[in-house]
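Hi U.,

Before I forget, here's the chain from the pilot set. I'm dumping it here mostly so it's searchable later in email.
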Amino acid sequence: MPHRKRVLLVAATTGYQTQMFSEAAERAGIELLLATDRCHVLEDPWGDRAIAIKFDHPENAADAIRESIGGDRRLDGIIAVGDRPAYVASVAAASLRLRFHPPQAVEASRNKFLARERFREAGLLQPEFYRIPTSSPPTGARFYPCVLKPLGLSASRGVIRANDDREFIDAFHRIRAIIQHEEMNDAIQVERFIEGREFALEGVVTAGRLQAIALFDKPDPLDGPFFEETIYTTPSREPAEIQADILETTARAIEALGLTDGPIHAEMRVNDAGVWILEVAARPIGGLCAKAIPGLEELLLLHAAGGRIDPPDPILASGVMMIPIPHEGVYQAVKGVEQARDVPDITEVIVTAKQGQIMLPLPEGKSYLGFIFSNAATPADAEEALRKAHAQLQFEILGALPVI
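Structure:
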């Protein structure tokens, strides 16, 4: 009788995405083990029997995993959610002889400057870019308009457009405050702003070969000064030749970074000059957004356990809205959820904000008020449903009191 496959999931917390993988593992008949960043002294505080590892010491993670599972228990695969967990998983996989992206490739993918250097060396379309130390007094940029970015944050956190010296200096100080307690806090990247439409590609890589799962359009213009993503729809409405260019460019970017085995989430812009890769992360799409691709977690687990897989059955069209935070404040309540759920083609409305939670919009914020999902006959219908549902929601967010 064939053995039950065993896959290790490395995650920062036991949140929504971890639960989705747990449920997918049950459906796929895979035994899922969990490793999270927590104190090894506490005895299973969340009741999830997770292996305690320290993300600050990824080189020790493999030893902790090996000790926890015991010498007679085998792992068939490893997967990670989140950028830091992906690097820890890559180091552990190299030590445990499991298929995954190499550590040096994951490190390059999560450092915007290293990634840009790799893309430039590969001959990919690249904007002008350079780094400035956070210890340097800012005076202005070499070119405008430009975009200032932290080297290591994701989901557009800390990304700010500047059109002149005053905006540049303000953005520099604002980003420096955001990243002061982050891993990569010694420099800020400056890039020439890229005009164009933005997209996201979800896929898996097997022995260096990209297999696309879904290509998302981002129908809202993302021109700054901040770059809050709101709506994703799939399949893409772009002509077939542009979609092919996106896939080909993403495959070249993956090769440039050296990513070989595991999930990827890529972001890109397209204009008359072609496809401009913004980043390629060595992880799947974050959080509840994965619900826009039914069966994604199961597919990724099967891939981790055995290699190349068949893509999920196509659906007519789907979309997700990450409900934006209109202003800083303390979340109190929401009205209109049932009305939003009653909008045709809406499949789910999930409010993740909790009463009393302080809500911060971008560029400082790193969360949303919740998520709206739709399935429809066309991507345009899915987008329209999301906008109609969002219009039904009325959020009460009280202005936060200043700290004295």
